[in-house]
Amino acid sequence: MDGAIDTTPSTLDEPISETIMRDLRQVSSKLRVVLIPSKKNTISSRYDHEEVLKQLKDWDLWGPLLVCLLLSIFLSVDAGSQGALVFSAVFLVVWSGAAIVTINAQLLGGTISFFQSVCVLGYCVFPLTVVAGVLLIVHTFLKSLIFDSIFVALAFIWSTRASVVFIGQFISEERKVLAVFPVFFFYVFLSWMILI
Amino acid sequence: MSSAESLDFVDLPKGSGAGVAPISNTQQSSIPTATANGSSLIFDPSTTIRATSHPLVALFHVLFKVLSLLFYLFSSFITSNFVFTFVLSVLLLSADFWVVKNVSGRRLVGLRWWSSVLDDGSTTWVFESSPNSASHTAADRNVFWTALYLAPACWSGLLLLDLVRLKLSYALVPVVALAMSAANITGFTRCSKDQKARINEFVTTGIGRVMGNEGIRNTIVGWVAGGGNTGGYANVNDQL
């Protein structure tokens, strides 16, 4: 499912390979955007900021699905005997968590669209997924909670910052904290699931 | 059941040839489809698929649905690893969703839908239908809409089965399947521009044609789809 702003009716006749490539390119560019969020402070990066916003406006749910599947796989492989349970739990948590956070943002009077928000939250889980993958490899020779925590904390800050930048755009100043808090909590929960 | 039995079953004289069934005849008897109760329905999938104007597209339209259903059903014989089952099922379902939304909708029935986000953050849904409807034959529409409604019917059954057996982790797969099917069905049904016309014609002529294979299938699936929402069902008059 994607929210591409298709203004040309000729997309009805475009070759299939073009459609596939377009979707793939969208997903990869959004992943890149999430990994390198830009600051609002400097003047030069304000243009990047606009670019980022525009990118994330074209929502699609393939990216979050992919990210979610990857995260679930990594965590379930790491969990050993309880793999199946962990997998379903992570999958459910990611999607319902994204939905709940989005509804919360909407109820706070934000002008954000449901799918856009779910899309952003899903993509922003990507740093956590990367770390989960790294930890999976590391755990084959080193199992240290401190080591894990450092990595997870890094990824957590990364994810939260990326998503807050976006969600913050659509909420008024005084309610920003209220909207951001569930996002924060969502990523804390996911990070905790990675650690245990 | 032996393969000889299932081959015998399928060798009965073929009907008018419309309808959708699994590609391989030997698989037919093992699919718990919604039309299984109509044992008088003899499907000839290869003829139907070849009768469409885009056989390859029609094939893929049906293929991923069938593959995902089959894989999920027989996953316990293939692997005991839940994660593998889940991931592969979801990937097949996603492939099916993508194919239906982007390819078969366009090629078979000339419909396309998507959503765009306006600057104020609201989401609008755009439904587009091709004016070139002459290139879409009745066979195209048959294959498209039947498969579109039949697959979620099967998945609902599987969901019930999983819930009853309390295999809640596995039940996630039919849930995902139903969510994706619902999206496509909603999108395409709203696209279909002569929906009202078809409903009228189905009501007036469909009941009178219950004797034929077409009529039985349309009636059953019309009932499954909830009465008035027959959407883009093949206009029975096209069969004449």
From TrEMBL, chain A:
GO terms for cellular component: Golgi membrane; trans-Golgi network. Coiled coil: none annotated. The keyword Transferase does not apply. Keywords: Membrane, Transmembrane, Transmembrane helix. The keyword Transmembrane helix applies. The chain crosses the membrane at residues 84-108, 114-138, 150-171, 177-195. InterPro entries: Yip1/4-like, Yip1_dom. Belongs to the YIP1 family. This is Protein YIPF. It comes from Triparma columacea.
From TrEMBL, chain B:
It comes from Triparma columacea. Keywords: Membrane, Transmembrane, Transmembrane helix. Belongs to the TVP23 family. It is found in: Membrane. It is a multi-pass membrane protein. InterPro entries: TVP23-like. It holds the Pfam family DUF846. The keyword Transmembrane applies. One of its GO terms (cellular component) is Golgi membrane. This is Golgi apparatus membrane protein TVP23 homolog. It comes from the Eukaryota. The chain crosses the membrane at residues 56-75, 81-100, 143-164, 170-189. GO terms for biological process: protein secretion; vesicle-mediated transport.
